[in-house]
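Protocol step 4 of 6: structure prediction from sequence.
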Amino acid sequence: QVQLVESGGGSVQPGGSLRLSCTASGSIRNTNGMGWYRQAPGKQREFVARFTSKGNPWYRDSVEGRFTISRDEYEPTVHLQMDSLRPEDTAVYYCNAFVDNTDHWGRGIQVTVSS
């Protein structure tokens, strides 16, 4: 089993920044395959950013250049630095880990971008 715990998030005005963190525990060897998804009200959950199985960062087009995914060197933790936030970034953000052909999810954390 893999457990994922998110932190960070909150409310910010358009153009502002927030940082999300996700720490994994359990049967997970490294942060390859970990990343972030989001779900806005009335919409399907969508991919945001992740590390590929080879450890390369990968972003959805609408966040490329504004969001940065990173990870700790010695802890199973990934971060999502979100800059130049827009109202359309408002959503519940979920940490995801794809381990042993299974998706694992955190509980989600709210990000609200509003003036």
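Step 5 (inspection) to follow. Residues 4 and 27 are 11 Å apart (CA to CA).
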